[in-house]
TrEMBL record:
GO terms, molecular function: DNA-binding transcription factor activity; transcription cis-regulatory region binding
Superkingdom per UniProt: Bacteria
Gene3D superfamilies named among the record's database cross-references: 3.40.50.2300, Winged helix-like DNA-binding domain superfamily/Winged helix DNA-binding domain
Protein name per its UniProtKB record: GntR family transcriptional regulator
Gene source species: Streptomyces genisteinicus
Keyword Transcription: yes
Organism lineage: Bacteria, Bacillati, Actinomycetota, Actinomycetes, Kitasatosporales
Record SMART domains: HTH_GNTR
SUPFAM superfamilies recorded: Periplasmic binding protein-like I, Winged helix' DNA-binding domain
Record-linked PROSITE patterns: HTH_GNTR (PS50949)
Length: 387
């Protein structure tokens, strides 16, 4: 194990300056893009085989020359580089709850549009924490962004509508991502692009109905951004389609334990339920495993449909899933924001709802029947059917 001095011995001249030059070169090569968070100090120091003190001095150099920016409690982030041309490059701040689940494809759509328009992106994550969200939004504003794309944690707020109303005081244009005002006035001007989660659930239930399922269950979640919308969509869709939901088979929990999933499967079997709609691929996969453990055949005895389509196709039994149009949400939101940045107060208040797709795989046991009132289906590259 090298000592701190040994770790730095390969450097000639001022050690921290050589490290700073190396980091600048890596950033210039795109190893860490604009808005990207640098690795934590210990990991980065170990990777470079330098001491923590040397790394900190090097990063301080990058902060001083504007290459990176420190955000209190969040980390160190690469600043966007100025674009070509006589004027300063415009910059959009993007604040999402997570950069690892659901939102990466939303951000991908945003980057596509803004990159083609020569606009920089500064990405931040609230990590589903209201305090972090507040600090990150303030940091984005202090950076001098020209517009904001926001996915606030409205489901965690005591008065979400008041928060949305207060966003009108922002000094720059903004558009909500996958969010909308929860209790808007008729003339609420908040612009947003979101997935019609309830419509996606109804699409799945209609498909199950076309396969002959009449008794269905809902294994849901609490305290997520889409949980309430999915639950309302399940209630409305099952009622619309005349599907029976026996008592105790529409259940929502903050986290599903193995024991709770096992009890739920037993209750569904006892209640004659033949299909279950699950919020979340991982919960749906756990349900399939438990159903098989209890001797049920999936999909013959119990059909399963998931919501999210993040990892629905990676198991030994690929899951039929409602697939939100994540990239398209990012694309449309970015275009909407650019229009508002260009038009200013004259920009119309646009509100866009996008219907998800249904990707039919093995877990539900069939493709849409010819008589089912569904959109036209086509073969996907994965061999699934997309509705």
């Amino acid at each position: 194990m090298k000592s701190a001095e040994d770790k730095d011995s390969f450097l000639l001249g001022p050690k921290y300056r050589r490290v700073a030059e190396h980091l600048r070169a890596e950033i210039a090569r795109g190893v860490w893009g604009a808005g990207t968070q640098l690795p934590v100090e210990r990991d980065l120091a170990d990777a470079l085989e330098v001491s923590i003190n040397t790394l900190r001095r090097a990063v301080s150099e990058l902060v001083a020359d504007g290459t990176v920016q420190r955000r209190q409690g969040a980390g160190t982030f690469v600043r966007p580089r100025p674009g070509p041309g006589p004027g300063p490059r415009r910059l959009v701040g993007v604040l999402v709850p997570s950069t690892t689940y659901y939102y990466p494809r939303v951000v991908e759509g945003i980057r596509q549009v803004l990159r083609d328009s020569g606009v920089g992106v500064l990405l931040a994550s609230s990590k589903y924490d209201l305090a972090v969200e507040r600090d990150e939004l303030r940091a984005l504003r202090e950076t001098g962004v020209d517009g904001l794309l926001l996915a606030p944690n409205l489901h965690l707020m005591p008065d979400a509508q008041e928060y949305v109303d207060c966003l009108r005081e922002l000094p720059v244009p903004y558009v909500l991502l996958e969010r909308c005002p929860p209790q808007p006035a008729p003339d609420d001007p908040t612009p947003y692009v979101r997935t019609d989660h309830g419509g996606g659930v109804c699409l799945a239930l209609r498909h199950l109905r076309s396969l002959g399922h009449r008794r269905v269950g809902h294994l849901g979640r609490l305290h997520t951004g889409s949980a309430d919308l999915v639950a309302r969509g399940f209630d409305a869709g099952s009622d619309l389609l005349g599907m029976e939901v026996p008592e105790g088979v529409s259940v929502r929990r903050a986290v599903w334990t193995a024991e709770e999933t096992a009890a739920y499967v037993r209750h569904c079997a006892d209640s004659g339920v033949t299909a279950v709609f699950c919020l979340g691929d991982r919960d749906a996969a756990s349900l399939v495993v438990e159903a098989r453990r209890q001797g049920l055949r999936v999909p013959d005895d119990l059909a399963v449909v998931a919501y999210d389509d993040e990892v629905a196709d990676v198991g030994d039994l690929p899951l039929t899933a409602v697939s939100p149009p994540k990239t398209e949400v990012g694309v449309l939101a970015a275009r909407m924001l650019l229009a508002r940045m260009d038009a200013g107060a004259a920009a119309p208040a646009e509100r866009v709802d996008l219907l998800p797709r249904l990707v039919v795989r093995a877990s539900c046991g069939g493709t849409p029947s010819a008589a089912a009132p569904l959109a036209a289906a086509s073969a996907s590259p994965q061999g699934a059917t997309v509705v």
